Amino acid sequence: MCGICGYYSKKQEEKRELLKKMGKAIEHRGPNDVGYFFEGGLGLCHRRLSILDLSERGHQPMETLERYVIVFNGEIYNYIELRIELEENGYVFHTGTDTEIIPAAFDLWGESCVNHFNGMWAFCLWDKQKKTLFCARDRFGVKPFYYCMDENRFVFASEIKAILCDDTINRVANEPIIYDYLTQGLVEHTDETFFKDIFKLPPGCFMTIDSQMDIEIKQYYDVQFSNLTKGRLEQKDIEEFKELFTDSVNVRLRADVPIGSCLSGGLDSSSIVCCMDELLQKEEKNTEQHTFSFCTEDKRIDERRYMEAVTKQTNTIPHQIFSSETDMKKELRELIYYQDEPFSSTGMYASYCVYRAARQSGITVLLDGQGADEILCGYRKSRVYYVKKLLNEKHYLKAFREFCGSISQVKSSMFLKNDILKLKKILSKGDSGSTEGYLKKDFCEKESGYDYSRKEDFQHNDVYVVSLPALLRYADRNSMAFSVESRLPFLDYRLVEFCASLPLEKKIHGGWSKYIMRKSLKMPEVIKNRKDKIGFATPEDIWLKKERNSFREIFKAEEIRSAKFVDVDKLLQEWDKILDENNASGLFRYICLELWMREFQVRAE
């Protein structure tokens, strides 16, 4: 995993100093090496984090076949198999990297080469003959690709902060995105960003740019979920799920550096740790797996007994990370800097601490569980959608049983409240935890808000709109802030497509979410039988209450950059009321927005 950036000028302008600044801005993504390529009005930069073939042969930008130059961020997990296939077609390779596979695949298969890749990627390929750029992003958008362009130039990078090194690019707030963020908590639901003039290449898409700055974006992949509701889980389903998952973990162990795992104590991370342990033992490497967990003394979200159940059953070296509201407040601006854009909760800080601990322990690659909730209906709201769908199809008895099963799983008032909030959100447009009342009236009247419920397929929405895109951005920035690569077994496209083909009943059964996963994978029984869901959570409400005065001071400054959107006087007047009503997440978004605008010197239009 690395960082890439570059520019393409219609006027054939060479901008060496700009490119060096851009590369420096994302040095944290690749501290092991830096490389540049210039040709006419084109400049490409690569920051390398060495994972495969640690020799100098992996240097980028990589020139191959006397025609192509590539900068590549990510991993092609099936590069060994692809290399064999390409060699059979006459291609000769000079490195042990997966990077060299891409230009050869493009030369043989053209744009459809991306359909042959299994992995995560964002790359830019320069064709010297045609004078065109071919840029592509993986199927689910694990790896980022941002760009800004006009009639004379195209600028791209792995992170927005690199693009902002170009002083001619306006740092103007994107008002519709800010409205959706403050009212609904949405952050990655379109191809726009919080910066008005900066966009992202959507997941499962590629783009071509020619010398006249004509751009064409095509979608090459879009997973479709089954519309079937009922279908009994069979043994063959269990066996296929287990086989696909195990192989997904196995190919993600390909690296020439130490690998560990995130461990929250939930189903997803626990299944990865157990599977990885089993694979390592089969290979007789006698390798101890490092696990990293964010922990808290807050009994509502303390998962240490589940984490310890996993580490006791496996050959692991556990690392438990604790933090406090003081630490979070102290490092919030730094976290915002690495994230590039606002985020929805202090939960991002937990992930940030975990990846920092991994780097401090000498671990360069971490396996993580993002994607499981989206493809296996792991969210509590998924069960509500399922019951609603059963009722619409007149399966009344089944709907009643599922409803009773779901209710029986709610153990604490904290989670019951969350379920009620999610149900309100599903049955009405908007976020039931919204603090919309603290926005300026003229701002609200101008914006209509994103209707994420317009698509009936809630699973597709979770994968491409509401949930997964945000999680992937958070994980990428947090991991790369400390030069750590995050790998996600649940987003192997083969596993995703298999899960997408299943009727809902095989994922939700008797009120149990991720039903097929519980039946298929090895993990301690105490985790397999868990009925709650927490994840890398922080005691956000307690943290904000303890730091209520210091955070309030943010909005007492002489200049409030978000004042065009926020009714600052009313917000300050009712600050304590918001916290006392347990709407910490809504208030945090206002805090995060203001600090983001200050950090990146963003102005309202």
Describe the protein's architecture and organization:
With 605 residues, this protein is of the alpha+beta class. It folds into 4 domains: 2-219, Aminohydrolase, N-terminal nucleophile (Ntn) domain (Glutamine Phosphoribosylpyrophosphate, subunit 1, domain 1, 4-Layer Sandwich); 235-375 and 467-528, Rossmann fold, CATH 3.40.50.620; 382-434, no CATH class; 540-599, no CATH class. Helix content is 40%, strand content 16%. The protein has a 6-stranded antiparallel sheet. Helix 8 links the parallel strand 14 and strand 15. Helix 9 packs across helix 25 (584-599), helix 10 runs parallel beside helix 17 (468-480) and helix 12 (380-392) runs antiparallel to helix 13. The two termini are 36 Å apart.
